[in-house]
């Protein structure tokens, strides 16, 4: 597996008008070498797509096609995310004022020693300060 893929980068890759060449490169890398995600990733991505439907931004057909596309990628869900939630995820969330969701990606990148693909400004800044390679912008 080549990188940690967060929900913001995932969504950025699904919406053509929001995608950048850097996000295209991330998805090319994921297609070739796979990615790791924390166990909350599927919930976050699906929630974002469902909110898009309720706000009239997208359709059920788009959501279902996006989920089918993602299911075809080699994305490995980290089953240890929950074991780290109250310790190595909570600590950086508190110190760096991150959501626990964002801190889960940070914790996974640190634990696996992999680059982080994210479009979230606060998460990117915190990860960079921790010496993590940042992808996606």
Q: Into which percentage range does the β-strand content fall?
A: 5-15%
Please outline the major beta sheet.
3 strands, parallel
Helical fraction equals 55-70%
Query: Can you tell me the CATH topology?
Result: Rossmann fold
Ends apart, CA distance between termini: 20 Å
Count of individual beta strands? 5
Regions with little confidence, pLDDT below 50 for 5+ residues = none
> How confident is the prediction overall: mean pLDDT?
94
Please state the overall shape, judged from the principal axes of the Cα atoms: globular
CATH architecture title = 3-Layer(aba) Sandwich
- CATH superfamily, by name, is 5'-nuclease
Number of helices: 7
- The assigned structural class equals mainly alpha
Strand order of the largest sheet: 1-4-5
Helix and strand string, N-terminal first? Answer: EHHEHHEHHEHE
Radius of gyration: 14 Å
Please tell me the total number of domains. Answer: 1
| CATH class categorisation | Alpha Beta
Question: Could you name the key traits of this structure?
Answer:
137 residues, mainly alpha, three-stranded parallel β-sheet, 5 strands
Describe the structure.
The protein is mainly alpha-helical. It has one domain (4-135): Rossmann fold (3-Layer(aba) Sandwich), CATH 3.40.50.1010. 62% of the residues lie in helices and 10% in strands. It is built from seven helices and five strands; from the N terminus they run βααβααβααβαβ. The chain has helices at residues 7-14, 21-33, 41-54, 60-71, 81-96, 100-112, 121-129, and strands spanning 4-5, 35-38, 75-78, 116-117, 134-135. The strands form two sheets. The chain has a three-stranded parallel β-sheet. Strands 2-3 form a two-stranded parallel ribbon. The chain is globular, with a radius of gyration of 14 Å. The mean pLDDT is 94.
